[in-house]
Specification:
Number of helices: 23
Largest sheet: 8 strands, mixed
Radius of gyration: 25 Å
Number of strands: 17
Shape: globular
Structural class: alpha/beta
Helix content: 40-55%
């Protein structure tokens, strides 16, 4: 497609509502390997040791990258690296590598051979499942690089990165202040690399097709992640506009829709990154993941340590609200200093409020005391407490009773306290079905779309075989959100899952009746800007049409049309 003044327009799928401009830099293709030696010359034992050592180094690197990603873009997005760690230790892939070594291949060739069929199987699938092939390539190439002792080449500052495809590791390591944008030949909006690019606020267009290969290194291009365009040889006016639109500027004040409906836009935080959230224009903290205070240490945090963390958050948002989610461990987040019983399916076992009320009741009591103390600080902000994994009214009432007991104990000790407002996470079908009973007992409901999708679709978030079902825009999940907002008349309703940070679905969520959106700090400016553009009546019409959709593809088509 041709534009004005010699511009070349290439169409793809926009990932991030941001625009960047710079010269093309092509990411190196797959690692090239020389012809393997004769099988008789291969020391099988030595090659197996090389694989084991490389796997260990790769797992350590994944752990470091996961921690860095959690800090930069959020815990939800960082979970991508958990799936990669699972691939690295997958028994079938391990057996495949061993068999290839037994056949006389050196370690790096054995890794390449073992991953060939699984990658092809994913590629043959449709929808988001096909994108998982990129995750396998990422793991494969990571192992090969470890075996060869090679590092990823540096990317020139200010360039636009082009590639056949981007892996999550490629993307997570990009610096949005250095890389002007990315574009790929293949890939979709639901690929893990695309999710990370969106969380980083990096201008990105995926699935441009073979035409992208014609762009040579050094060619000036604009990546328009909002319109899904790559513009080669842009004219001066296009370049200037792209430079101005490089990032969505933070909006400091609260926002409302075009017709005056207030929508709170808050941040999900998992440590002490409160200042980063404030810098991006967060109205408050919609999800304080307190488990980060308890992990990566040899003993639990003290009451005073927790009090200081909650008070610091309130001090950062003196005019806003800070929602502290109580300890949400179990499942994929065990505590290193408390051994829990081994469970066949931990995601359907003792996690969240279930362990807080039972074996971790002492930690729960200490946390509630710290929360009540912090609520009494004179910061001006509002502190709220939110209970995770609530599935019954009895669980909620017991949690509230523990909160009252903590407050009473503080009063008896003469310690200043205040009872915080309360809410629950809506993460399971049972919570959706009893949303009206829960809403009658709390001040707010917060929909965790990541876990809600997992449980509605019966698809483990860490199981790549059912990745195509892990889609929060599936009609079943949208109807669960709608049921929650419709039956939560006694409490306001927010969303704190990954879906809240996708500005492309902001209108849909508002139409479904959501009053608060809590997301990774980097996504806040784009979401706030989108809120200001939404007309409530049009949003409700969009929501009604989405609720009538019978398939995920129908929802996607509807959103694309909008």
């Amino acid at each position: 497609m041709s534009g004005t003044n010699g511009e070349r327009l290439l169409e793809g799928t926009g990932v991030t509502p941001a625009t960047g401009v710079g010269p093309v830099h092509w990411l190196a293709a797959d690692l090239e390997l020389p012809e393997p030696p004769d099988a008789d010359a291969v020391d099988r034992s030595s090659e197996r040791e090389r694989v084991a050592d490389a796997r260990e180094r790769a797992l350590e690197a994944l752990e470091r990258e996961r921690a860095a990603a959690a800090e930069r873009v959020g815990e939800s997005e960082a979970e991508i690296f958990d799936a990669h760690a699972a691939f690295l230790t997958d028994p079938q892939l391990e057996d495949g590598i061993d068999e290839a070594v037994d056949d006389g291949l050196p370690a790096e060739h054995a890794v390449r051979a073992a991953f060939e069929d699984p990658i092809a199987q994913f590629e043959a699938m449709e929808g988001p499942m096909a994108d998982r092939a990129d995750d396998l390539r990422d793991v494969r190439d990571r192992l090969v690089r470890e075996l060869l002792g090679r590092e990823t080449a540096a990317i020139p500052a200010g360039s636009v990165l082009l590639a056949e495809r981007l892996t999550p590791s490629d993307t997570a390591g990009l610096d949005p202040d250095s890389v002007a944008g990315v574009a790929t030949v293949t890939g979709g909006r639901t690929a893990h690399a695309a999710i990370l690019a969106r969380a980083l606020g990096l201008p990105a267009v995926v699935g441009v097709g073979e035409a992208l290969r014609a762009l040579e290194a050094g060619t000036p291009v604009v990546v328009d992640g909002e319109r899904g365009l790559v513009i080669a040889d842009p004219d001066p006016e296009t370049r200037d506009r792209a430079g101005r639109d490089r990032r969505v500027e933070p909006i400091a004040e609260p926002v409302e829709t075009a017709d005056g409906r207030p929508i709170e836009v808050a941040a999900n935080v998992g440590g002490d990154d409160f200042a980063a959230a404030a810098t991006q224009g967060a109205d408050g903290i919609g999800l304080f993941r307190t488990e980060f205070l308890f992990l990566d240490r040899d003993e639990p945090p003290t009451e005073d340590e927790q009090y200081e963390a909650y008070a610091d958050a309130l001090e950062t948002f003196p005019d806003g609200r800070v929602i502290v989610r109580t300890l949400d461990v179990g499942g994929d987040k065990p505590l290193p200093y408390r051994e829990g019983a081994s469970e066949r399916n931990p995601f359907l076992g003792a996690r969240g409020i279930r362990v807080a009320l039972e074996e971790l009741s002492d930690l729960f009591e200490t946390q509630l005391r710290a929360i009540c103390r912090a609520a009494a600080t004179e910061s001006g902000g509002e502190l709220a407490v939110m209970f995770p994994m609530i599935t019954t009214v009895e669980e909620l009432e017991e949690a509230q009773a523990r909160l009252e007991a903590a407050a009473s104990a503080l009063a008896d000790e003469g310690i200043e306290y205040e009872r915080p407002t309360t809410g629950v996470m809506i993460e399971t079908p049972s919570a959706v079905f009893i949303a009206d009973e829960l809403a009658a007992r709390v001040d707010f409901l917060s929909i965790g779309t990541n876990d809600l999708t997992q449980y509605v679709m019966a698809a483990d978030r860490e199981n790549e075989r059912v990745a195509d079902l892990q889609d929060p825009l599936h009609p079943a999940v949208l109807r669960a959100i709608d049921r929650t907002t419709s039956h939560g008349d006694d409490a306001w309703v927010g969303v704190c899952g990954e879906l809240a940070g996708d500005s492309a679905v902001t209108e849909l969520l508002i139409g479904l009746g959501v009053e608060e959106l809590s997301t990774s700090p980097i996504a806040i400016p784009a979401v706030k800007r989108r809120v200001r553009e939404v007309e409530s009546a049009e949003a409700r019409t969009l929501a009604d049409r989405a609720l009538e959709a019978e398939t995920r593809d129908a929802v996607a088509t509807l959103l694309d049309d909008e």
